[in-house]
Specification:
Strand content: 15-25%
Radius of gyration: 25 Å
Number of helices: 14
Helix content: 25-40%
Number of domains: 2
CATH superfamily of the largest domain: Peptidase S8/S53 domain
CATH topology of the largest domain: Rossmann fold
Number of strands: 15
Largest sheet: 7 strands, parallel
Protein backbone atom coordinates (compact mmCIF):
# COMPACT_ATOMS: atom_id res chain seq x y z
CA UNK A 1 0.00 0.00 0.00
CA UNK A 2 2.80 2.37 0.99
CA UNK A 3 4.68 1.48 -2.19
CA UNK A 4 1.62 2.29 -4.30
CA UNK A 5 1.27 5.67 -2.58
CA UNK A 6 4.94 6.42 -3.17
CA UNK A 7 4.61 5.34 -6.79
CA UNK A 8 1.65 7.69 -7.29
CA UNK A 9 3.50 10.53 -5.60
CA UNK A 10 6.51 10.05 -7.83
CA UNK A 11 4.36 9.89 -10.94
CA UNK A 12 2.51 13.05 -9.87
CA UNK A 13 5.81 14.84 -9.27
CA UNK A 14 7.10 13.83 -12.67
CA UNK A 15 3.83 14.98 -14.24
CA UNK A 16 4.05 18.32 -12.43
CA UNK A 17 7.64 18.82 -13.55
CA UNK A 18 6.70 17.94 -17.10
CA UNK A 19 3.79 20.39 -17.05
CA UNK A 20 5.97 23.10 -15.57
CA UNK A 21 8.59 22.58 -18.24
CA UNK A 22 5.89 22.63 -20.90
CA UNK A 23 4.51 25.90 -19.51
CA UNK A 24 7.98 27.45 -19.49
CA UNK A 25 8.52 26.34 -23.06
CA UNK A 26 5.20 27.88 -24.03
CA UNK A 27 6.08 31.16 -22.31
CA UNK A 28 9.43 31.19 -24.06
CA UNK A 29 7.94 30.70 -27.50
CA UNK A 30 8.42 33.70 -29.73
CA UNK A 31 5.37 35.87 -30.13
CA UNK A 32 4.29 36.06 -33.74
CA UNK A 33 1.67 38.54 -34.88
CA UNK A 34 0.31 36.83 -37.99
CA UNK A 35 -2.29 39.43 -38.92
CA UNK A 36 0.23 42.25 -39.18
CA UNK A 37 -1.54 45.52 -40.01
CA UNK A 38 -0.10 48.61 -41.60
CA UNK A 39 0.99 51.13 -38.97
CA UNK A 40 -1.28 54.00 -38.07
CA UNK A 41 -0.36 57.41 -39.43
CA UNK A 42 0.91 60.14 -37.14
CA UNK A 43 -2.36 61.97 -37.70
CA UNK A 44 -4.36 58.96 -36.56
CA UNK A 45 -2.24 58.62 -33.42
CA UNK A 46 -2.62 62.30 -32.58
CA UNK A 47 -6.38 62.06 -33.10
CA UNK A 48 -6.47 59.22 -30.59
CA UNK A 49 -4.52 61.28 -28.04
CA UNK A 50 -6.87 64.21 -28.65
CA UNK A 51 -9.91 62.01 -28.11
CA UNK A 52 -8.65 61.20 -24.61
CA UNK A 53 -8.06 64.85 -23.75
CA UNK A 54 -11.38 66.00 -25.20
CA UNK A 55 -13.17 63.46 -23.02
CA UNK A 56 -11.40 64.66 -19.89
CA UNK A 57 -9.12 61.63 -19.65
CA UNK A 58 -5.38 61.59 -19.05
CA UNK A 59 -3.43 59.91 -21.80
CA UNK A 60 -0.86 57.23 -21.02
CA UNK A 61 0.76 55.02 -23.65
CA UNK A 62 -0.33 52.00 -21.61
CA UNK A 63 -3.91 52.83 -22.63
CA UNK A 64 -3.36 51.88 -26.29
CA UNK A 65 -2.99 48.47 -27.92
CA UNK A 66 0.36 47.17 -29.10
CA UNK A 67 -0.32 47.98 -32.74
CA UNK A 68 -0.93 51.64 -31.89
CA UNK A 69 2.16 51.68 -29.67
CA UNK A 70 4.27 50.17 -32.46
CA UNK A 71 2.91 52.77 -34.89
CA UNK A 72 4.00 55.53 -32.49
CA UNK A 73 7.42 53.91 -32.09
CA UNK A 74 7.91 54.02 -35.85
CA UNK A 75 7.13 57.76 -35.69
CA UNK A 76 9.67 57.98 -32.86
CA UNK A 77 12.74 56.92 -34.86
CA UNK A 78 12.25 53.43 -33.35
CA UNK A 79 13.34 54.77 -29.95
CA UNK A 80 11.63 53.25 -26.93
CA UNK A 81 11.89 53.93 -23.21
CA UNK A 82 11.50 50.89 -20.96
CA UNK A 83 10.84 51.44 -17.29
CA UNK A 84 11.43 48.29 -15.29
CA UNK A 85 11.10 47.06 -11.72
CA UNK A 86 9.43 44.45 -9.54
CA UNK A 87 6.43 46.72 -9.09
CA UNK A 88 5.23 50.21 -10.03
CA UNK A 89 7.17 51.77 -7.14
CA UNK A 90 10.45 50.05 -7.95
CA UNK A 91 11.90 52.87 -10.05
CA UNK A 92 14.93 53.97 -8.00
CA UNK A 93 17.97 52.06 -9.27
CA UNK A 94 19.94 53.00 -6.15
CA UNK A 95 17.36 51.19 -3.98
CA UNK A 96 16.73 48.26 -6.33
CA UNK A 97 19.22 45.41 -5.63
CA UNK A 98 18.00 43.40 -8.62
CA UNK A 99 18.16 46.26 -11.12
CA UNK A 100 21.05 44.76 -13.11
CA UNK A 101 19.42 41.32 -13.18
CA UNK A 102 16.11 42.75 -14.40
CA UNK A 103 17.80 44.89 -17.03
CA UNK A 104 19.81 41.92 -18.30
CA UNK A 105 16.64 39.84 -18.64
CA UNK A 106 15.01 42.61 -20.66
CA UNK A 107 18.09 42.96 -22.89
CA UNK A 108 18.04 39.19 -23.48
CA UNK A 109 14.41 39.46 -24.52
CA UNK A 110 15.29 42.27 -26.92
CA UNK A 111 18.06 40.21 -28.50
CA UNK A 112 15.69 37.27 -29.02
CA UNK A 113 13.31 39.42 -31.00
CA UNK A 114 15.51 42.07 -32.55
CA UNK A 115 18.67 40.01 -33.11
CA UNK A 116 21.76 39.76 -30.92
CA UNK A 117 23.96 41.01 -33.73
CA UNK A 118 22.61 44.51 -33.13
CA UNK A 119 25.07 46.16 -30.72
CA UNK A 120 22.97 49.33 -30.49
CA UNK A 121 19.86 47.82 -28.97
CA UNK A 122 20.45 49.61 -25.66
CA UNK A 123 20.72 53.24 -26.53
CA UNK A 124 21.30 54.51 -22.99
CA UNK A 125 20.70 53.50 -19.39
CA UNK A 126 19.92 55.83 -16.52
CA UNK A 127 22.28 56.06 -13.57
CA UNK A 128 19.61 56.63 -10.93
CA UNK A 129 16.38 55.26 -12.40
CA UNK A 130 15.28 51.83 -13.52
CA UNK A 131 14.92 52.73 -17.16
CA UNK A 132 16.71 52.23 -20.45
CA UNK A 133 16.27 53.71 -23.90
CA UNK A 134 16.41 51.10 -26.64
CA UNK A 135 15.92 50.66 -30.39
CA UNK A 136 12.95 48.47 -31.39
CA UNK A 137 11.66 47.68 -34.87
CA UNK A 138 9.20 44.82 -34.37
CA UNK A 139 5.69 44.85 -33.02
CA UNK A 140 6.30 41.42 -31.51
CA UNK A 141 9.09 42.85 -29.36
CA UNK A 142 6.74 45.41 -27.87
CA UNK A 143 4.14 42.76 -27.15
CA UNK A 144 6.73 40.56 -25.43
CA UNK A 145 7.92 43.48 -23.32
CA UNK A 146 4.39 44.31 -22.26
CA UNK A 147 3.97 40.75 -21.05
CA UNK A 148 7.23 40.73 -19.10
CA UNK A 149 6.74 40.85 -15.33
CA UNK A 150 9.64 43.27 -14.82
CA UNK A 151 8.46 45.92 -17.29
CA UNK A 152 6.64 48.86 -15.69
CA UNK A 153 6.03 50.74 -18.94
CA UNK A 154 7.01 50.78 -22.60
CA UNK A 155 6.77 54.14 -24.41
CA UNK A 156 7.94 55.79 -27.63
CA UNK A 157 10.90 57.92 -26.59
CA UNK A 158 10.72 60.59 -29.28
CA UNK A 159 7.07 60.95 -30.28
CA UNK A 160 6.65 64.61 -31.25
CA UNK A 161 2.97 65.27 -30.81
CA UNK A 162 3.12 69.03 -31.35
CA UNK A 163 5.42 68.82 -34.34
CA UNK A 164 2.86 66.55 -35.96
CA UNK A 165 -0.04 68.78 -34.87
CA UNK A 166 1.65 71.83 -36.33
CA UNK A 167 2.39 70.40 -39.77
CA UNK A 168 1.16 72.86 -42.36
CA UNK A 169 0.20 75.35 -39.68
CA UNK A 170 3.44 76.51 -38.08
CA UNK A 171 2.06 79.63 -36.39
CA UNK A 172 -0.85 77.99 -34.66
CA UNK A 173 -1.77 75.10 -32.43
CA UNK A 174 1.20 75.38 -30.13
CA UNK A 175 1.02 74.75 -26.43
CA UNK A 176 3.29 77.24 -24.73
CA UNK A 177 3.55 79.76 -21.96
CA UNK A 178 1.78 83.10 -22.23
CA UNK A 179 5.21 84.66 -22.55
CA UNK A 180 6.76 81.70 -24.35
CA UNK A 181 10.13 82.11 -25.94
CA UNK A 182 11.18 85.60 -26.80
CA UNK A 183 13.56 88.34 -25.91
CA UNK A 184 11.04 91.12 -25.45
CA UNK A 185 11.28 94.07 -23.08
CA UNK A 186 8.47 96.27 -21.82
CA UNK A 187 8.07 99.65 -20.25
CA UNK A 188 6.53 98.80 -16.90
CA UNK A 189 3.55 100.96 -15.98
CA UNK A 190 4.05 102.85 -12.73
CA UNK A 191 0.68 101.54 -11.60
CA UNK A 192 2.00 97.96 -11.82
CA UNK A 193 4.89 98.37 -9.37
CA UNK A 194 5.72 99.98 -6.06
CA UNK A 195 9.24 101.17 -5.34
CA UNK A 196 10.76 100.16 -2.00
CA UNK A 197 14.26 100.41 -0.54
CA UNK A 198 16.93 100.41 -1.80
CA UNK A 199 15.28 101.16 -5.17
CA UNK A 200 13.54 97.92 -6.09
CA UNK A 201 10.20 97.48 -7.80
CA UNK A 202 7.58 95.28 -6.15
CA UNK A 203 5.17 93.76 -8.71
CA UNK A 204 1.49 94.57 -8.10
CA UNK A 205 0.62 90.87 -7.80
CA UNK A 206 2.82 90.46 -4.73
CA UNK A 207 0.52 92.72 -2.73
CA UNK A 208 -2.48 90.53 -3.64
CA UNK A 209 -0.76 87.76 -1.68
CA UNK A 210 0.64 89.86 1.20
CA UNK A 211 4.18 89.01 0.12
CA UNK A 212 5.70 92.43 1.05
CA UNK A 213 4.26 92.09 4.56
CA UNK A 214 5.76 88.60 4.81
CA UNK A 215 9.22 90.08 4.14
CA UNK A 216 9.19 91.51 7.65
CA UNK A 217 9.52 87.92 8.85
CA UNK A 218 11.31 86.10 6.02
CA UNK A 219 13.25 86.80 2.82
CA UNK A 220 13.98 83.18 1.87
CA UNK A 221 17.53 83.21 3.27
CA UNK A 222 19.13 79.78 3.58
CA UNK A 223 16.66 78.06 1.23
CA UNK A 224 17.70 76.81 -2.21
CA UNK A 225 15.22 76.76 -5.10
CA UNK A 226 15.85 74.65 -8.17
CA UNK A 227 14.28 76.01 -11.37
CA UNK A 228 13.89 73.51 -14.20
CA UNK A 229 13.36 75.53 -17.34
CA UNK A 230 15.28 76.98 -20.30
CA UNK A 231 18.22 78.40 -18.33
CA UNK A 232 19.37 81.89 -17.35
CA UNK A 233 20.20 84.79 -19.64
CA UNK A 234 23.92 85.62 -19.58
CA UNK A 235 23.01 89.23 -20.30
CA UNK A 236 20.92 89.84 -17.18
CA UNK A 237 23.56 90.72 -14.57
CA UNK A 238 21.07 90.67 -11.67
CA UNK A 239 20.64 86.92 -12.21
CA UNK A 240 24.37 86.37 -12.60
CA UNK A 241 27.27 88.33 -11.11
CA UNK A 242 25.02 90.84 -9.32
CA UNK A 243 22.74 88.21 -7.79
CA UNK A 244 23.92 89.60 -4.47
CA UNK A 245 23.16 93.28 -4.64
CA UNK A 246 21.05 95.84 -2.81
CA UNK A 247 19.36 94.05 0.10
CA UNK A 248 20.10 90.59 -1.28
CA UNK A 249 23.26 89.09 0.16
CA UNK A 250 25.00 85.92 1.35
CA UNK A 251 23.46 83.67 -1.30
CA UNK A 252 24.50 81.90 -4.51
CA UNK A 253 23.29 81.25 -8.04
CA UNK A 254 24.43 78.14 -9.91
CA UNK A 255 23.74 77.29 -13.53
CA UNK A 256 23.67 73.86 -15.19
CA UNK A 257 22.80 72.65 -18.64
CA UNK A 258 21.39 69.19 -19.40
CA UNK A 259 19.66 69.92 -22.70
CA UNK A 260 21.10 68.52 -25.91
CA UNK A 261 20.17 70.66 -28.90
CA UNK A 262 20.29 68.11 -31.69
CA UNK A 263 17.94 66.31 -34.05
CA UNK A 264 20.02 63.17 -33.47
CA UNK A 265 18.98 61.25 -30.35
CA UNK A 266 22.44 59.76 -29.94
CA UNK A 267 24.02 63.20 -29.48
CA UNK A 268 25.18 63.79 -25.91
CA UNK A 269 26.80 67.24 -25.90
CA UNK A 270 24.66 69.82 -24.11
CA UNK A 271 24.29 73.36 -25.44
CA UNK A 272 25.32 74.97 -22.16
CA UNK A 273 23.64 76.74 -19.25
CA UNK A 274 22.42 79.90 -20.95
CA UNK A 275 18.79 80.67 -21.65
CA UNK A 276 18.14 80.68 -25.40
CA UNK A 277 14.41 81.17 -25.00
CA UNK A 278 13.77 83.81 -22.32
CA UNK A 279 11.26 81.80 -20.32
CA UNK A 280 13.69 80.41 -17.76
CA UNK A 281 15.07 83.86 -16.98
CA UNK A 282 11.55 85.16 -16.29
CA UNK A 283 10.71 82.25 -13.96
CA UNK A 284 13.93 82.51 -12.01
CA UNK A 285 13.38 86.27 -11.75
CA UNK A 286 9.91 86.15 -10.20
CA UNK A 287 11.09 83.55 -7.69
CA UNK A 288 14.50 84.93 -6.67
CA UNK A 289 15.50 88.24 -8.36
CA UNK A 290 17.45 90.47 -5.95
CA UNK A 291 16.00 93.33 -3.98
CA UNK A 292 18.07 95.63 -6.14
CA UNK A 293 18.90 99.34 -6.28
CA UNK A 294 18.52 99.44 -10.08
CA UNK A 295 14.85 100.38 -10.18
CA UNK A 296 13.92 96.92 -11.54
CA UNK A 297 11.43 94.19 -10.49
CA UNK A 298 12.46 91.97 -7.58
CA UNK A 299 11.55 88.37 -6.78
CA UNK A 300 9.47 86.81 -4.00
CA UNK A 301 12.33 85.08 -2.17
CA UNK A 302 14.97 87.74 -2.78
CA UNK A 303 17.49 86.15 -0.42
CA UNK A 304 17.03 82.52 -1.49
CA UNK A 305 19.68 80.58 -3.39
CA UNK A 306 19.01 79.62 -6.99
CA UNK A 307 20.03 76.53 -8.95
CA UNK A 308 19.03 76.95 -12.59
CA UNK A 309 18.79 74.03 -15.00
CA UNK A 310 18.57 74.49 -18.74
CA UNK A 311 16.59 71.32 -19.43
CA UNK A 312 14.61 72.21 -22.54
CA UNK A 313 14.61 74.50 -25.56
CA UNK A 314 11.11 75.80 -24.77
CA UNK A 315 8.15 75.13 -22.51
CA UNK A 316 6.74 72.19 -24.48
CA UNK A 317 8.43 68.89 -23.59
CA UNK A 318 7.93 67.52 -27.06
CA UNK A 319 10.99 65.44 -27.91
CA UNK A 320 13.62 63.01 -26.71
CA UNK A 321 16.24 65.51 -25.62
CA UNK A 322 13.76 67.78 -23.83
CA UNK A 323 12.19 64.90 -21.92
CA UNK A 324 15.61 63.46 -21.14
CA UNK A 325 16.85 66.85 -19.99
CA UNK A 326 13.96 67.34 -17.58
CA UNK A 327 14.40 63.84 -16.19
CA UNK A 328 18.10 64.47 -15.63
CA UNK A 329 17.42 67.83 -13.98
CA UNK A 330 15.01 66.27 -11.49
CA UNK A 331 17.36 63.46 -10.52
CA UNK A 332 20.27 65.89 -10.15
CA UNK A 333 18.25 68.25 -7.97
CA UNK A 334 16.87 65.31 -6.04
CA UNK A 335 20.41 64.26 -5.16
CA UNK A 336 21.30 67.67 -3.71
CA UNK A 337 20.76 67.88 0.03
CA UNK A 338 20.66 71.68 -0.04
CA UNK A 339 17.82 71.97 -2.56
CA UNK A 340 14.43 72.06 -0.84
CA UNK A 341 12.14 73.36 -3.59
CA UNK A 342 11.85 72.60 -7.31
CA UNK A 343 9.82 74.81 -9.65
CA UNK A 344 9.01 73.83 -13.23
CA UNK A 345 6.75 75.85 -15.50
CA UNK A 346 6.82 73.43 -18.43
CA UNK A 347 4.95 70.30 -19.35
CA UNK A 348 3.07 68.12 -21.80
CA UNK A 349 -0.51 67.08 -22.45
CA UNK A 350 0.22 63.40 -21.84
CA UNK A 351 2.35 61.40 -19.44
CA UNK A 352 6.04 60.75 -20.06
CA UNK A 353 7.30 57.78 -18.07
CA UNK A 354 10.90 58.91 -17.62
CA UNK A 355 9.82 62.36 -16.39
CA UNK A 356 7.34 60.72 -14.03
CA UNK A 357 10.17 58.59 -12.64
CA UNK A 358 12.40 61.66 -12.25
CA UNK A 359 9.69 63.59 -10.41
CA UNK A 360 8.99 60.66 -8.09
CA UNK A 361 12.71 60.28 -7.43
CA UNK A 362 13.03 63.94 -6.38
CA UNK A 363 9.84 63.73 -4.35
CA UNK A 364 11.16 60.74 -2.42
CA UNK A 365 14.28 62.78 -1.66
CA UNK A 366 12.11 65.29 0.23
CA UNK A 367 11.81 67.99 -2.43
CA UNK A 368 8.70 70.18 -2.59
CA UNK A 369 7.84 70.27 -6.29
CA UNK A 370 5.71 72.98 -7.93
CA UNK A 371 4.49 72.52 -11.51
CA UNK A 372 2.45 74.72 -13.83
CA UNK A 373 -1.14 73.62 -14.33
CA UNK A 374 -0.99 74.62 -17.99
CA UNK A 375 -1.01 77.65 -20.26
CA UNK A 376 -2.09 77.33 -23.84
CA UNK A 377 -3.57 78.70 -27.01
CA UNK A 378 -7.05 77.97 -28.28
CA UNK A 379 -6.11 74.55 -29.63
CA UNK A 380 -5.34 73.02 -26.29
CA UNK A 381 -7.68 74.92 -24.04
CA UNK A 382 -9.84 71.80 -23.81
CA UNK A 383 -7.02 70.13 -21.89
CA UNK A 384 -7.31 70.24 -18.12
CA UNK A 385 -4.30 70.25 -15.82
CA UNK A 386 -1.25 69.13 -17.78
CA UNK A 387 1.52 66.65 -17.00
CA UNK A 388 3.43 66.50 -14.66
CA UNK A 389 1.29 68.93 -12.64
CA UNK A 390 -1.45 66.30 -12.48
CA UNK A 391 0.84 63.92 -10.59
CA UNK A 392 0.13 63.49 -6.85
CA UNK A 393 3.85 64.06 -6.16
CA UNK A 394 3.65 67.64 -7.45
CA UNK A 395 1.90 70.83 -6.32
CA UNK A 396 -0.10 72.23 -9.25
CA UNK A 397 -0.55 75.98 -9.65
CA UNK A 398 -2.56 78.14 -12.03
CA UNK A 399 -3.15 81.84 -12.62
CA UNK A 400 -6.28 83.95 -12.16
CA UNK A 401 -7.40 87.46 -13.04
CA UNK A 402 -7.53 90.40 -10.70
CA UNK A 403 -11.13 90.20 -9.52
CA UNK A 404 -13.29 89.60 -6.45
CA UNK A 405 -14.32 86.25 -7.93
CA UNK A 406 -12.09 83.50 -9.24
CA UNK A 407 -11.62 83.74 -12.98
CA UNK A 408 -8.77 81.86 -14.58
CA UNK A 409 -6.50 83.90 -16.81
CA UNK A 410 -7.36 83.88 -20.50
CA UNK A 411 -4.86 81.13 -21.31
CA UNK A 412 -4.62 79.30 -17.97
CA UNK A 413 -5.80 75.77 -17.25
CA UNK A 414 -7.78 74.74 -14.19
CA UNK A 415 -9.10 71.51 -12.73
CA UNK A 416 -9.34 69.17 -9.79
CA UNK A 417 -5.57 68.69 -9.54
CA UNK A 418 -4.87 72.41 -8.95
CA UNK A 419 -3.58 73.13 -5.44
CA UNK A 420 -3.03 76.91 -5.43
CA UNK A 421 -3.82 79.99 -7.50
CA UNK A 422 -1.92 83.21 -8.02
CA UNK A 423 -3.48 86.49 -9.17
CA UNK A 424 -1.35 87.48 -12.19
CA UNK A 425 -3.56 89.27 -14.76
CA UNK A 426 -4.75 92.83 -14.11
CA UNK A 427 -8.29 93.92 -14.66
CA UNK A 428 -8.69 96.65 -17.24
CA UNK A 429 -5.18 96.62 -18.75
CA UNK A 430 -4.66 92.87 -18.77
CA UNK A 431 -1.04 93.47 -17.74
CA UNK A 432 0.75 90.50 -16.22
CA UNK A 433 3.54 90.33 -13.62
CA UNK A 434 6.63 92.58 -14.00
CA UNK A 435 9.91 90.60 -14.07
CA UNK A 436 13.51 91.12 -15.12
CA UNK A 437 14.01 91.03 -18.86
CA UNK A 438 16.43 88.84 -20.75
CA UNK A 439 18.51 91.99 -21.24
CA UNK A 440 20.37 93.90 -18.57
CA UNK A 441 18.68 96.98 -17.06
CA UNK A 442 15.40 96.00 -18.74
CA UNK A 443 12.07 94.62 -17.52
CA UNK A 444 9.18 92.71 -19.01
CA UNK A 445 5.73 91.30 -18.24
CA UNK A 446 5.14 87.56 -17.91
CA UNK A 447 1.90 85.67 -17.29
CA UNK A 448 0.12 82.35 -17.34
CA UNK A 449 0.36 79.45 -14.94
CA UNK A 450 4.13 79.68 -15.45
CA UNK A 451 4.56 82.87 -13.41
CA UNK A 452 1.97 81.63 -10.91
CA UNK A 453 4.06 78.52 -10.27
CA UNK A 454 7.36 80.36 -9.78
CA UNK A 455 5.62 82.84 -7.45
CA UNK A 456 4.27 79.99 -5.32
CA UNK A 457 7.72 78.38 -5.17
CA UNK A 458 9.04 81.71 -3.85
CA UNK A 459 6.34 81.81 -1.14
CA UNK A 460 7.29 78.27 -0.12
CA UNK A 461 10.89 79.47 0.27
CA UNK A 462 9.71 82.25 2.62
CA UNK A 463 7.85 79.70 4.74
CA UNK A 464 10.74 77.22 4.83
CA UNK A 465 13.28 79.94 5.67
CA UNK A 466 11.11 80.99 8.61
CA UNK A 467 10.89 77.34 9.74
CA UNK A 468 14.18 75.72 8.64
CA UNK A 469 13.64 72.47 10.57
CA UNK A 470 10.28 71.74 8.94
CA UNK A 471 9.66 68.95 6.47
CA UNK A 472 8.10 69.59 3.08
CA UNK A 473 4.81 68.21 4.42
CA UNK A 474 4.78 70.81 7.18
CA UNK A 475 5.58 73.63 4.75
CA UNK A 476 2.84 72.53 2.37
CA UNK A 477 0.31 72.18 5.16
CA UNK A 478 1.06 75.69 6.39
CA UNK A 479 0.60 77.04 2.86
CA UNK A 480 -2.76 75.29 2.56
CA UNK A 481 -3.88 76.60 5.94
CA UNK A 482 -2.97 80.11 4.75
CA UNK A 483 -5.09 79.89 1.60
CA UNK A 484 -8.57 81.21 1.02
CA UNK A 485 -10.55 77.99 0.66
CA UNK A 486 -8.91 75.99 3.43
CA UNK A 487 -9.94 73.46 4.77
CA UNK A 488 -12.03 72.74 1.69
CA UNK A 489 -10.72 72.59 -1.86
CA UNK A 490 -12.32 74.25 -4.87
CA UNK A 491 -12.98 71.93 -7.81
CA UNK A 492 -11.07 74.20 -10.24
CA UNK A 493 -8.76 76.39 -8.14
CA UNK A 494 -7.60 74.15 -5.30
CA UNK A 495 -7.01 75.89 -1.99
CA UNK A 496 -7.12 79.24 -3.74
CA UNK A 497 -5.08 82.38 -3.11
CA UNK A 498 -2.23 82.07 -0.61
CA UNK A 499 -1.69 84.73 2.04
CA UNK A 500 2.10 84.80 2.39
CA UNK A 501 2.02 86.80 5.62
CA UNK A 502 -0.20 84.24 7.31
CA UNK A 503 2.02 81.48 5.95
CA UNK A 504 5.16 82.84 7.64
CA UNK A 505 3.54 83.76 10.96
Amino acid sequence: MIKNVLRVAVLFSLFAISCSQEENQKSEELIVISNQKDPLTARQINDLINSFNQNGKKFYWREVDTHTLWSAVLQSKNLVTIGFGKNKDDFDRTKSPDATKMQNEIVSLLKRYEGDQNDKLVFSEDTYLNLIDVVITKQETLEALRRNKFVRYVEPADYRYFSIENQGNPEDNQLESDSGCGYSTSTISTSDVTTISPNAQVPWAFYKHAIPSAWNLSSGAGVTIGVVDTGLSPQQTLMNGNFNTGQSSGRFVQKYGVYVDSIWPWSTSTDGVNDLCGHGTSMASVATAPRNNNGLPMGVAYNANLVSYRASSDVVLNGYHEQNGVKNAFTALGNRTDVKIISMSMGHIFSVGKIEDGVRYANNKGKLIFCAGGTSTSFTNFVGVIFPAWMPETVAVTGIKEASTYQKCDVCHSGAEIDFTIMMERSGTGNKVPVLSYYNNQADYVGGSSVATATTAGIAALVWAKNPTWTKAQVLTKMKQSSQFYPTKNSQFGHGIINALTAVQ
